[in-house]
Specification:
- This protein is of the alpha/beta class.
- It has 2 domains: 145 residues, Quinone Oxidoreductase, Chain A, domain 1 (Alpha-Beta Complex), CATH 3.90.180; 140 residues, NAD(P)-binding Rossmann-like Domain (Rossmann fold).
- Helices cover 30% and strands 24% of the residues.
- The protein is globular and about 60 Å long.
- Bound molecules: NADPH dihydro-nicotinamide-adenine-dinucleotide phosphate.
């Protein structure tokens, strides 16, 4: 038997999450059984742990949309016992049982071998949020990053923190947008050269076009923030739209696209093909400054998860929460 955070739903539709003992026979079908070492807390995990169940498709459920660990048993030729692996996406932790468990069983197709130079703990300090930040930066590179500061919104959050560190390491000037001024030292430590208050973007004139300012943008916030910053992009610059922490609506006009040739790039980390995932993890191992990664990490255990799920939905988590499932 081993520990897992199990979410149940009662007859009244109320959900509850608690650390419970389960066995290998309880795990869903799959090709590869993994001894999980670390998982993380992402916005989606907050939804899946919290009341209402968010994106959960069936109960009982083990959340955790990402994990890193060691293969324990494999029916697939690509993996053997002892291999280090990492998983993000594929609706694991939503439609399928995820990483908040000391052991889990998944399809081999969903896994990626841990790249050289990364430990399982570092891989989860990156996690889904950091993997997505890397995809967002790669999309900006594909479309060309202009001279001048690159904007990162929701900068003190998971995606924003990793995006800030990667862009700074790549030599870009990073303007970090935060609603938490007290995180300025933290963001400067990650490599941000400019701290922008949330209201300085949100409470602008609301004209469709303002001064051409940003050479690119990784946006984790959406909503009003995304609508406003579109009109502040340099001619031909791109915005990687990653998240909706500030709302799913988009009260924008088409003017920035028509008159400034702005590109709005949608980033989806969930259904990324294997080759893209391998490429992004290799870039993470190469381009993410590991000393800065350590500053982002808040350690946690399985029993901390119900509270952390609430915190992340309130936007109150700084950086990345790394869950040691064996602690
Ligand atoms: P976090 O909660 O760690 O970070 C979100 C940050 O957004 C907060 O820290 C805060 O930053 C800012 N924020 C929160 N609420 C508001 C608001 N009302 N208005 C403006 N800013 C706000 O989440 P993650 O970084 O893990 O995820 C960010 C978003 O990206 C989520 O919507 C998530 O679902 C999405 N996501 C999408 C993925 C994809 O594949 N497309 C993959 C992973 C995540 P600050 O305090 O600095 O202002």
């Amino acid at each position: 038997m081993f520990n897992a955070l199990v979410v149940n739903k009662n007859d009244e539709g109320k959900t509850s999450a608690a650390v419970s003992q389960i066995g290998l026979d309880d795990l869903p079908a799959g090709d590869v059984t993994v001894a999980v070492e670390y998982s993380t807390v992402n916005y989606k995990d907050g939804l899946c742990i919290g009341p209402g169940g968010g994106l959960v498709r069936n109960y009982p459920h083990v959340p955790g949309i990402d994990f890193a660990g060691t293969v324990e048993a494999s029916d697939d030729d690509r993996y053997k016992a002892g291999d280090k692996v990492v998983l993000t996406g594929w609706r694991v932790g939503e439609a399928y049982w995820g990483g908040y468990s000391q052991k889990t069983r998944v399809k081999a197709d969903w896994l990626v071998p841990l790249p050289d130079g990364l430990t399982t703990q570092q891989a989860m300090a990156v996690g889904t949020a950091g993997f997505t930040a890397m995809l967002a930066v790669m999309a900006l590179e594909d479309h060309g990053i202009k001279d001048g500061p690159v904007l990162v919104t929701g900068a003190a959050g998971g995606v924003g923190s990793v995006a800030t560190a990667i862009l700074a390491k790549l030599g870009h000037e990073v303007a970090a947008v935060t609603g938490r001024p007290e995180t300025a030292d933290y963001l400067n430590g990650l490599g941000a050269t400019q701290i922008v208050a949330r209201e300085d973007i949100n409470e602008t004139t609301k004209r469709p076009l303002e001064a051409e300012t940003w050479g690119g943008c990784v946006d984790a916030v959406g909503g009003e923030m995304l609508a406003r910053l579109l009109g502040q992009m340099q001619y031909g610059a791109s915005v990687s739209a990653v998240g909706l922490a500030g709302g799913a609506g988009l009260p924008a006009t088409v003017i920035p696209f028509l008159l400034r040739g702005v590109n709005l790039l949608g980033i989806d980390s969930v259904m990324q093909p294997y080759d893209n995932r391998v490429r992004a993890w290799a870039r993470i191992a190469q381009d993410l400054p590991m000393d800065r990664l350590e500053a982002m990490v808040q350690p946690a255990t399985l029993s901390d998860l119900p509270q952390l799920g609430k915190d992340i939905l309130k936007g109150a988590v700084k950086g990345r929460v790394v869950v040691d499932v064996n602690a």
